Amino acid sequence: MNETQLEKLFSSGILIDENVKSAEINDVDWLIVQLKSANITFLDQKTLHDIYKETVVSQDTYIEITKNYKGGTSASKPADWVIYFNDRFNRLKNLLLNKGISGIMSISQVKEMPIGSDVKFIAMISDISISPIKKFTIIEVEDTTSSYKVISPTAEPDLLPDQVVIITGKKSKDAIFAKSIIFPDIQVKENEPVAIEDAFVLFLSDIHIGSKLFAREAFEKFITWISGKTNEYSEIAGAVKFIVIIGDLVDGIGVYPDQEKELSLTDLKSQYSELYKLLKNVPKNIKILISQGNHDATHIAEPQPGLDPIFGEELYKLENAVFLSNPYQVNLVVGGHKTNLLGYHGFSITYYVNNIDRYNKMTVEDVASIMRLQLKSRHLAPTHGSAQIVPLTQDYLVIDETPDIYAAGHIHKALISKYKETILVNASCWQYQTLYQKKYGINPEVAKVPIINLKNKEFMMLDFLGEKVQIYKKGIKT
Ligand SMILES: [Fe+2]
Ligand SMILES: [Fe+2]
How far, in Å, from the CA of 363 to the mean position of ligand 2? Predict the structure, then answer.
């Protein structure tokens, strides 16, 4: 801002944060009108960002936010948990009722039915065990009216504690003999090509700036590529409309024992500033969606609100950035065509790697199966305890809407796959193997970038680790 602009703001009664004084403003009179109409008397970086962010988007490319947790408190008292669990149960119950299955009863109504009756009811799974002799699955279930026992004659590998399902079966004296177990599951979406030009969305995750193991050279190669200064795949770089960054933007402070030994930047603000210095080189016509992970400057319990403007102050200078919660859901809009994106950092994925034996090698197939289970359960942490939770009045981890793309990170692996017509993405990382990962035998896949064409849903992955940018074939499952 120049002296005249500053003077105009001061004389209009607006105080200005020191950091905003270096911002470039075209029309100060317009800005003053915006501030006055919103009753704002103090202009800081976040306020400036919020005012300008909608004006820099070209008319045919923008984001519609459908789910974004803005913060809110919970005392985590028993009563809060009751409200939270009721909301979770009712949201999942409504998704099941939308399937149009008639004759659904409550468990207390089932109990009043004569022995031998066919019954259908919606219940939350409270316990699952396998009978040792006959391999039956014995399931304890409950709803808001009562609880009951269900016996299924088959193994039920996709059944998890705390899922909400429809059970159909026959009533016996002490239990229901299940005929079918119906999951909320996602809908099959039509993926017809649309009449737009090539328009790409690409995915980054787990950048871990501030770590000595940050893959700086590879990340800078990515920035050079997206800026159109690389020969390889430049036609893709030129048609990227959205960059989605799914958390663990920085390495954070005190996240794991002895972390300080592996840090190059030991305060959060300078870690985020370093990210800003890199992302400010991304062309301004590309929207950057930024959300949080367990290493970022927020509480670990989910949902996590958007980036804290105190720590991430510099990033709020990016007028092409949108700051979102973890998880979130948005529509990526290009030429009137909407692609629904569900973004979740992925903390609960490691719980299932550790707790379901068949997934414990954490291969790309295992991760895809866990992401598929989340969609099938219509919940990002179906088992209570698979992620820490803030017990709010709304359960933000329920997947209310079927996404076209479900993108996660956290496990530092590169994956692009499909479940029904929904594309599954795990967005690799930009951090070489840490001592902690070495101890647990985790080999990260570094600097891989999944890319989807919004025109026809075709996908691919680029590798920025080698000398030249090249196609990465591993981790792509069609
Ligand atoms: Fe990470
Ligand atoms: Fe993480």
Answer: 17
pLDDT at 134: 74
Please give the distance of CA 391 from its chain centroid, rounded to a whole number.
Answer: 18
Instruction: Read off the pLDDT band of 56 (50, 70, 90).
Output: very low
Rounded to whole angstroms, what are the CA distances from 69 to 64, 73, 303, 467? 14, 11, 7, 40
Expressed in angstroms and rounded, the spacing between residue 208 Cα and the centre of ligand 2 is 9
Angle at 281 between CA 280 and CA 282, to 5 degrees: 90
pLDDT at 380 over 50: yes
Q: Is the whole-model pTM more than 0.70?
A: yes
Beta strands in 375-477 (DSSP E): 405-408, 414-419, 422-427, 448-453, 459-463, 470-471
> Which ligand has an atom closest to residue 302 CA?
2
Please tell me the number of the ligand nearest to residue 408's CA: 2
Q: Which ligand is nearest to the CA of 300?
A: 2
Domains and CATH numbers, the chain: 3-52 (no CATH), 99-182 (2.40.50.140), 200-471 (3.60.21.50)
The position carrying tokens 């499909």 is 418
Measured in Å, residue 244 CA sits from the centre of ligand 1 at 15
How far is Cα of residue 152 from the mean position of the Cα atoms in its chain? 34
